[in-house]
């Protein structure tokens, strides 16, 4: 991350942005009462000797707000896909109708909802820790510039304040995402 003050700030901003994107990806995997095709993204099925995501061997779409449909592209893949979904840790129970698999989303119990909000908060905390690590790294590089006399004390102080403002904005964004996901999980 060495270089000039603008380069250090730009790198920090980029890394913090990546942390937020990673959080969005993790939150998308956390199940709510509503069905969405992305929930099956982490389920892999054996296909000609290699494990591939279901989306690579079947068309995954929504039938309604609580049901996902999985339409295998090849005959004979249905039972394999059904088994993979059943054995995943998602707690789903697919039902086959000819070639089509219907995957109803069970309603979440109050206890399961509370557990999921804990998972959401924990995921948000991990993202904040990553953002703070980026801030620490940026500040270390700024201090090194000052020590090597490549920046004045005023420039270094100003840059640290800007990195702190960036950190605050990013953490506020993380909090907003976490609160939104919590509300989504708790909605019946």
Automatic annotation (TrEMBL):
Alphabetical GO biological process terms: cytoplasmic translational termination
Chief location category: cytoplasm
tRNA-binding is among the record's keywords: no
CDD domains tied to this protein: RRF (cd00520)
Sequence ranges assigned to domain Ribosome recycling factor in this UniProt record: 23-186
Gene Ontology MF term list: ribosomal large subunit binding
Compartmental location: Cytoplasm
Family named by the database record: Belongs to the RRF family.
Protein name per the record: Ribosome-recycling factor
Highest classification ranks of the organism: Bacteria, Pseudomonadati, Pseudomonadota, Betaproteobacteria, Burkholderiales
Gene: frr
């Amino acid at each position: 991350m060495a270089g000039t003050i603008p380069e250090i700030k730009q790198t920090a901003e980029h890394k913090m942005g990546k942390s937020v994107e990673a959080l969005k990806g993790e939150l998308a995997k956390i199940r709510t009462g509503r069905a969405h095709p992305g929930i099956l993204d982490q389920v892999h099925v054996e296909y000609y000797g290699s494990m591939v995501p279901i989306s690579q061997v079947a068309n995954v779409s929504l039938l309604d707000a609580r049901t996902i449909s999985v339409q295998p592209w090849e005959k004979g893949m249905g039972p394999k896909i059904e088994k993979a979904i059943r054995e995943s840790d998602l707690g789903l129970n697919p039902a086959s109708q000819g070639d089509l698999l219907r995957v109803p989303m069970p309603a979440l119990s109050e206890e399961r909802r509370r557990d999921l909000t804990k998972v959401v908060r924990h995921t948000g905390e991990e993202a904040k820790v990553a953002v703070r690590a980026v801030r620490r790294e940026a500040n270390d590089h700024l201090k090194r510039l000052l020590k090597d006399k490549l920046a004045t004390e005023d420039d270094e102080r100003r840059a640290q304040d800007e990195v702190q403002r960036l950190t605050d904005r990013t953490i506020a964004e993380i909090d907003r995402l976490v609160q939104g996901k919590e509300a989504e999980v708790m909605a019946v």
